[in-house]
Amino acid sequence: MGEKDITEKILADYNDVFADIMNGLLFAGEQRILPEALENTSIHSQYKAEDEKVHELERDVAKYWKEKEVELAICGIENQSVVEKNMPFRVIGYDGTAYRSQLLEERKKILPVVTIVLYFGTDRHWNSKKNIKSLMEIPEGLDKFVNDYSMQVFEIAWLTEEEIERFQSDFRIVANFFVKKRKNKDYIPDDPTEIKHVDEVLKLLQVMTGDDRYKEMFKKKKEVHSMCDVAERLEKMGIAKGIELGREEEKKASRVEFILRVLEMKGGVDEKTRKRIEEEPDVDLLDIWFTKALKANTVQEFEQALD
User: Fold this and answer.
1) Are 158 and 120 in contact (CB under 8 A)?
2) Most CB contacts within 10 A, which of 40, 97, 257, 272?
3) What is the pLDDT of residue 46?
4) Which of 71, 38, 75 has the alpha carbon at shortest distance from 59?
5) 211 vs 192: CA distance, rounded Å
6) For residue range 101-124, what is the model confidence (pLDDT) as tens digits?
7) Residue 23: beta bridge partners?
8) CB–CB of 196/159 below 8 Å?
9) How far apart are CA 257 and CA 27, in angstroms?
10) CA atoms of 18 and 11, how far apart (whole Å)
11) Average pLDDT value for the chain
């Protein structure tokens, strides 16, 4: 399972976040599932295939929903950061093994299994099919005999403000971030809501955005209480990075100037060579070229040393 899935799994595994996701997406914000009514269950399901070997499927998060000491349902969350064409087949596999596990336990009452897919993509909607029949080529006349199976996909980055307000946990902060990020790629988080699970939220943002600055915040995460703190830290890191880049550009400019001065003393520098030197971004390589320029007797000899 990919790094992105693993990161989100950590946050959603908290009962308050898990219950909040279910209440917000399935029950329009009504507090039907309470965190204390959830119980951890195995995310691993086993089945025996035709090769007689035991295979294992792994869900991202799975919980038992219990009320008044009665098990009512099994809820699972499968996270996706990119569109996966065959996701409906994975979901039917998860649900099927969950039901089979109950049969093997010889339960008197089979509990319903609910699996939802959280899609965090910001570049496009989930543009793949959501049921298994649409992904198969069924011979004419057999369609009505092939059982269909659909999955429920929730596109987090396309939630409305009203839908986001239904969440009460850190997931509201996460959902708001992805919606804003979809609308503005350069969005800097500015949500003043206090973060409860700081470490998990920062890890999620770092992995989902690919921005290592969030990773740097882990070291001083006690100073982060809300996304406003995150924005302030990002700004400071940006300024520091800008200073660092400025120094690097200054160093590069000086190397280029030294090389061209040395070459001009040994003859004219043609436009092609000048452009190559000026556009070279590697300062260490420019240092090597500077040494070559000093050793060369002519510009032509320097140019040959570059090739």
Assistant:
1) no
2) 97
3) 42
4) 75
5) 21
6) 888 888 788 888 899 998 988 889
7) none
8) no
9) 66
10) 8
11) 80
Which structure tokens are listed for 207?
């992995």
pLDDT at 71: 58
Per residue in 265-292, pLDDT (tens digit) is 777 788 888 888 888 888 788 888 888 8
Per-residue pLDDT, 57? 47
pLDDT of 43 reads 56
**What contacts 2, CB < 8 A, 6 or more positions away?**
81
**Residue 156 in this model has a pLDDT that exceeds 80:** yes
- Name residues whose C-beta falls within 8 Å of residue 44's C-beta, 6 or more positions apart in sequence: 56, 57, 58
User: What's the Cα-to-Cα distance from 112 to each of 72, 73, 74, 100, rounded to whole Å?
Assistant: 8, 5, 6, 12
